[in-house]
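name: query_chain
kind: protein
chains: 1
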Amino acid sequence: MKRDNATSKQTFLKLMQLIGKYKILLVFSIILAGVTVVLTQFTPILFGDAIDGIIAAGNVNFGLVYDYLFKILIMVLATALMTWGMNMINNRLAYKVVQDVRSRAIRQIQVLPLSVLDSSETGDIVGRVIADVDQLSDGLLLGFTQLFTGVVTIAVTLIFMFSRSWLISLLVILLTPLSFFVAKFISQKSFHMFQKQMSTRGAQTALIEEMVGHEKVVKAFAYEQRASERFDAVNKELQKYSQKAIFFSSLTNPSTRFVNSIIYAVVAMVGSFLILDGHLTVGGLSIMLAYANQYMKPFNDISSVVTELQNALVCAARVFSLIEEEPEVAEQPAVLPDSDGAVSIENVSFSYVPEKKLIENFSLDVKPGMSVAIVGPTGCGKTTFINLLMRFYDVTGGVIKIDGVPIKDVTRHSLRANFGMVLQETWLKHGTIRENIAYGCPNATEEQIISAAKEAHSWEFIRRMPKGLDTVVNDDSLSAGQKQLLCITRVMLAIPPMLILDEATSNIDTRTEVLIQSAFDKLMNGRTSFIVAHRLSTIRNADLILVMKDGHIIEQGNHNELMKQGGFYNNLYNSQFVHA
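structure:
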């Protein structure tokens, strides 16, 4: 995953590009903000004129005062209505942008190379898509409410102030940069701390997901104390960065308020001298003080929510780093039709890490309908070969062809549609058993699903479930063997041109394994099949057995041929029966 090192300015510009998609909402928001501000600016004028109607004790123009108070009431109600409309638009605008960001993040995950996902912590990715986007949503709402209204308020207030007193207005403008310098200095410090805070929070989320998701292993190996210690260390680090981030950001509001109070005091003092000189009335001074307060209010508002805004920008940077991650290599538009099952592997090389070679000069020619078993010690490249065949990873050298067509020249979807795959690592989605079986064939009929379940010998436990095929399950509600039976059923239903079985019966009891093996034999009949197995007794009938070691094929042939050679396969096979 890319480092989240974008500056707040870069992140803000990216957000503005997303917001630009909703120009109409943005324009209406700005218009309503402008109308709201203009109405707000007229209120101090009405108050000032009402004050000037109070000439002296016993000399009050009540008719004039009542007239201005009625106008003030109308103005306040109109302002409230416009503010409500503006907030409704801002909410819609913020949630539209957040919806787009989250959708782009999910779509990006679907096209990321497995190498990126394998090297990233699941909890951190989940945190970016859910928690970080939620934080961004809160920040956008505050930003739209405070930023747009604040900018318009500052501009309109200056116009009204200059219409009343250019001298006081000029003083206010000259003193304003003090507030900017203070806010900028503090916000730079807090943004850096928020970056560290969110990075540590992602690590904490990943650790929690790891510990909770594998709690049985944690308890089985008495790892509870060490897990708590690891969490405490990350938690203390998060506490440290959070406290520093909050401390720096909390300085912004009181600091800017202090500067703004100085500006307010200068306006009051200069205005008092202007009254004595006859250039300003008491009501006029009250208007200028109200304007000075309204002019400074946006700075106070923005500084009061700087914590949320800085946090939102950091969260946005983390989400953007996921969205901008390099996707899989662009694929060709050609589609691979239903394959005959001829697979040709020519001088293929591959390594997960450039400096550490894994598979070198791997060549193989598989005829249609052959069953090919791949055996060898752990880490020799068996599963890696399957990953290359399915284009989960792309080869770094050589070429893999199916029916004479390089797999890089066809879409990944059409390539994978030609394979049925059962892995040692099972996966079920949260849904009914029916939905899990029909995952690759959503239009399958109930008769087809039941037939596939019977073929895979999963129907016995399915029919005993509370609601049969309509029983809702997830990845934790079934035993490992039951989950693997459902995964096998899924492939039985799809009936693909080619099969990949990677330790497909590893979690199944011996009696059921024998039954499933016969079902596999029936399914593999006439189909090209690749079988990865550690239990060598299950692949004795394979047409071709490849013995791999350190990424190379060191022996190949059928079971009897390899046993006669008395080599590595012979020793590997016999070692499984030493303690029998």
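note: The mean pLDDT is 80.
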